[in-house]
Structure formats: C-alpha cells, structure tokens
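Justification of computing resources. Each target in the renewal requires a structure prediction run like the one illustrated here; the chain below, 269 residues long, is used simply to show the kind of job we budget for.
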Amino acid sequence: MLRSMYSGISGMKNFQTKLDVIGNNIANVNTYGFKKGRVTFKDMVSQTISGASAGDATRGGVNPKQVGLGSQLASIDTVDTQGSLQTTGRVLDIGIQGDGYLMVESNGVPSYTRAGNLYFDNAGNLITASGHLVYDINKAPINIGDPNSITNLSIDESGKITYLTKGQDGKMIEGEPKYIGIARFNNNGGLEKIGENLYIETEASGEAEMLTPGTSGAGKLVSGTLEMSNVDLSEEFTEMIVAQRGFQANTRIITTSDEILQELVNLKR
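Resulting structure tokens:
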C-alpha cells in the first residue's frame, strides 16, 4: 500500500481534532472566564531510505534520504490570555485583572476558576453560580453570617469584603472584613479543565500559591465586572477555514492514492 494514503489518514485525524477544539472555542464565546484552546501538530517518524555519508578527498558528502509518514498531535494548549472585562454594576461580580484564579471547593477537591459571578447562599457562604464555596487567602470558606442583615457591601481591588450588619442592639455596625484570595501557579497551561469553568492543579502546573490580590504578581479584583471569554470569533473562523481546507487536501491525497492503486490493479487486464 502507498505511504501517502496513511499520511493522508493521519492528517485527516489531526485536522478533525483541530475542528473539535475550534468548535468548543466557538461554543464558549460567551462563557465567563473561558480560556480558548489551540492545537499544534508535529511530523511523525520518517522512514530512512538511505543514510547520510561523509565526503572524502575526491567526493562530497551525501545527505540522508527520508520519506515522512504523516503528522501527529504535538499539543492541545490552553491559551491563558486576559479576557476583556464587561461592566455589570453588580458588587458580587468580580473580574480578575491580571494573573491568578479564585480558589473554590468542588466535591471536597480544591479547584480554580476565572468566572467571578459570585453569590451568597442562605447561610452567608460566598459561592459560585454552581454552588462551590469560595476560599479566602487562608484556604478557608468565606462566610459573612446572616445575609439578610447585610448592607453596604463592597469589595476592593485587594479582595477585602466590607459590609454593615445588625448588632445586638439592632443598630448597624461594621462587620468583620473578609478577604478573597488569588491562587497563582508556576505554569497556568498545566491546569486540567474539569468542566463548570473549573480547573484542578496537576504536576505540570505546580501547587497553588494563595496570595492577596494585587501583590506578588497576583491580579487585582475589579468589582462590578466580569471577565469575558478570550475567544476571538474572527480568528476562530479563519482557523476553521484553514482546518477545513487542510482536511480537504488530505482527503484528496487518499483519493489520488486510491486512483494510483486502481491503475496498478488494471495493469493485469
């Protein structure tokens, strides 16, 4: 069988994976805090027909002769660039301007997210839209007590939550401030997506370091905003056309190889 046929098959598989990633990017164009994916390829092992040889006094050297056997996936990267901040005016909507993630708890496992649409439940716990508890800089859940007695809530860029609450005499007093923490990693690209806008740390990402927002390279918190997806539709549509044409070209390789095999079969007639 022709090597070109197998090369075409490997190309089709890879471009299909690229189209899958592009489709996921486009599907999440309006997902808060979403980070787009990117596919890269690398060539597969090459078959050496003849090796290289050194020259001598009467003859020059000869370069190796090799035939490539197709392509394979090199990586599927998470592009961790800053998304634009959309103003919402809601105090508990928090956008991260810079590096870092909010630390939350998902099924007892520390997880991380850039989606900052937060809420208070009926017990006063700060939670995400999916109900995950949000942690402070000491990796403890944030609780403000009875949410019905809270007024004048505000969150500054350092993650400090200030509010007024009812005292024992019924008068409004300043409540104990809480502090939202920011988790940073040595390698953000090494985080593993687990759905619901969440990531978990891996050996590639390193362990999370909890920091006060705006310090030691951690991003600042911008209350009243949400970070939009960093997907650029014009770029995705361009990449989709490239992937479509690449897939089409590889199918043409298979078609041409099949025609050549058909000619070989017809030689017997």
